[in-house]
Amino acid sequence: MDMALSPSEMDRMLDEHFGYEQRDDVEGVLATLDDDVEHDIVGWPDGPSHGPEGARAFYESLFADLADGRVETLRRFYGDGFLVDESLWRGRAPGRPFGLEGRNRPLEFRLLHVLEFADSGKIRRENVWLDLASIIRQLPQD
């Protein structure tokens, strides 16, 4: 019988995941993902990946492209084994986030995470939507 995670258990895992992201800790982030995780960052050129190793390239690129990131949770919605998190990311763009020249400019954008959890408490599916229009406005290319 499946034991649904409580909202506080889901919060704890997502906050741990965001903490590793804030520290640019690829191994830590991957450790929060279930062995057969579906990792789907909408708009990521390589499309969805499977398994923690499949997600590695995304995080290595993300941590090279964005810096000093802080995530502020705006609201969360909970269901049976899933969590929807609306957050605001703030930091700098020293690399080429989403194919745009960052030039170390300040950046902030909204994110929507749709997460499903395995019985183990790890993230079984991570689907992320971000406000790319806002990113493009803040990082004009000349």
What are the SSEs and their pairings?
Layout: H1 7-22, H2 26-31, E1 33-41, E2 49-50, H3 52-65, E3 67-79, E4 82-93, E5 105-117, E6 123-130, H4 132-138
Parallel strand pairs: 1-6
Antiparallel strand pairs: 1-2, 3-4, 4-5, 5-6
Write structural notes for this entry.
By secondary structure, the protein is α+β, with helices and mostly antiparallel strands. Helices cover 30% and strands 40% of the residues. The protein is built from four helices and six strands; from the N terminus they run ααββαββββα. The protein has a six-stranded mixed β-sheet with strand order 2-1-6-5-4-3. It is globular.
Lateral arrangement of strands in the main beta sheet: 2-1-6-5-4-3
Give the tally of β-strands: 6
Measure the end-to-end span: 57 Å
Gross geometry: globular
Counting DSSP H or I runs of 4 or more residues, the number of helices is: 4
Features of the shown structure:
six-stranded mixed β-sheet; alpha+beta; single chain; 142 residues
In short:
By secondary structure, the protein is α+β, with helices and mostly antiparallel strands.
